[in-house]
Amino acid sequence: MNLAIEVKNLEKTFMLHNQNSVKIPVLSGISMSINFGECVVLNGHSGSGKSTLLRSLYANYKPDDGQIIIYLSDRKIDLLTASAREIIELRKTTIGWVSQFLRVIPRVSALDIVMQPLLDLGIDSYIAKDKAAYLLNKLNVPKRLWSLAPSTFSGGEQQRVNIARGFAVDYPILLLDEPTASLDNQNANVVIDLIEEAKKRGSAIVGIFHDVTTRDKVASRLFSME
Ligand SMILES: Nc1ncnc2c1ncn2[C@@H]1O[C@H](COP(=O)(O)OP(=O)(O)OP(=O)(O)O)[C@@H](O)[C@H]1O
Fold first, then answer.
1. ipTM of the modeled complex
2. In Å, how far are 7, 12, 218 from 67, measured between CA atoms?
């Protein structure tokens, strides 16, 4: 097995400073390993800490204790001690985040939004454009919308632009935060295909899927948060 991520004894307690410093313990002694080529789905009741763990794997949240080791080809990086510069680099080259919510950037076209992560890696613009067009097409975003900024798009169209952007780069590690939520069946199946393709390419995937049918289709195994 080829390790991609190793989580060791993760601890996270939220402190509500403006509410009498109430403490909310969320992650306690979480340990897990994720290999390249598998999709691990976080499973547990609402409030069990799935989002907190997923955000920690993207270094959005900093756990209080433990380790999150990211295995690169030539070295390992612990997200709890990584520098801001290392985290920015990891997000550019190694760890992708796909959620249902699009950060709309005013006046930037849908095609440019999807191409940008590829351009950031120094990939030629004609190759980036081809990949973006392939994904927008696959996700049924009508071609007449590609040159427009998505601020006026429907919720579903914006979501599909965001998913296309999330899959533009073939990241070695992909974090999926309910990417199929509120998609119709046809488009949810496209996303399931994209996940399967990423798995076959050898990406290590961690995701949250509330829909049991989707979860069972994509999961190599479940990780229980109970
Ligand atoms: N930024 C935050 N500040 C304070 N408390 C938080 C914060 N984020 C999450 N929590 C708390 O941590 C607990 C776990 O939340 P989290 O969103 O990780 O659960 P979840 O399993 O993803 O839930 P759901 O399935 O409902 O999305 C909750 O009690 C929540 O109130």
1. 0.96
2. 6, 12, 27
